[in-house]
Specification:
seven-stranded parallel beta sheet; about 270 residues; about 15% strand
């Protein structure tokens, strides 16, 4: 793989590979990159017809998009994904590890081996192998690349029933810091974003209006996040504007995790300090 072959995937418009790019936060990321004149490679699950329609819509609106299907729980599928990119668009200079499995609240006593194998394969193993494949090509061609991992506030803020999922996201953030150090000498930057509650169909599906109001009440900014709120930070981390930032996890939650979740109306006012 030559430098020119890799850079062929990053000519104007620049190219970003977004895993899980056809739905939820991934769709918002793709929209933001296309609006900024990037070419997007939209990874999706095999036989995902909604993803194909999304890619067609980008093209119809004047954007540049390519679809690539792969089961990220299968290491061989990841290898084939990059082999396909080698033959088609070249290797994107930005990799966004957005795809993940959020199974919802699963108590510890309900977790089994099969559940953990799938969760860790998608949320930990796949981002590491995706980064390995991309970094091998960047290093061989002496070409700098950027990795942005999509984590979650659950990695540092605990809720009952989220043990396995939170563990997977904590591992992803540790991976982010480790790979920033390991790949830094080759000019590869690795960062992550940790979203709070984002208004995507999956998170809205089982929520009542009362629950949503309760969530909004916890956000100092006074609203829930739209996928575009996360996408703008990912775009920043992928751009030269963040050229000296690596090994960092940026929390994007409207201030939720820095706020004490008690009812301040019930806290008696203390005397003023002298």
């Amino acid at each position: 793989m030559t430098r020119s072959q890799i850079e062929s995937g990053a000519k104007s418009p620049r190219t970003a590979l977004v895993t899980g790019g056809a739905g939820g936060i991934g769709r918002g990321i793709c929209d933001a990159f296309v609006a900024a004149n990037w070419r997007v490679v939209v990874h999706h699950e095999p036989s995902d017809h909604e993803a194909e329609a999304f890619i067609d819509a980008i093209r119809s609106n004047g954007g540049t998009a390519t679809g690539v299907a792969a089961d990220l729980a299968d290491a061989r599928s990841i290898t084939r994904l990059f082999d396909e990119l080698d033959r088609t668009v070249g290797v994107p200079k930005v990799l966004i590890n957005n795809a993940g499995w959020d199974p919802g609240n699963v108590p510890l006593r309900d977790i089994d081996d099969e559940f953990l194998d799938r969760l860790f394969a998608v949320n930990i193993k796949a981002p590491m192998l995706m980064t390995q494949q991309a970094a091998d090509r960047w290093i061989a061609a002496d070409c700098r690349g950027v990795v942005v991992n999509v984590s979650s506030v659950h990695s540092t803020h605990s809720l009952a029933g989220r043990c396995a999922y939170a563990t997977s996201k904590g591992a992803l953030e540790a991976m982010t810091r480790q790979l920033a150090v390991e790949l830094g000498p080759w000019g590869v930057r690795v960062n992550a974003v940790a979203p709070g509650f984002v208004t995507v169909p999956r998170t809205l599906a089982d929520k009542t209006p009362e629950q949503l109001t309760s969530f909004v009440d916890r956000v100092p900014i006074g609203r829930l996040a739209d996928p575009s709120d996360i996408a703008s930070v990912v775009l920043y981390l992928a751009s030269d504007l963040s050229g000296y930032i690596t090994g960092q996890v940026l929390t994007v939650d409207g201030g939720t995790t820095c706020r004490l979740h008690h009812d301040t109306k019930k806290v008696a006012r203390g005397k003023a300090h002298a």
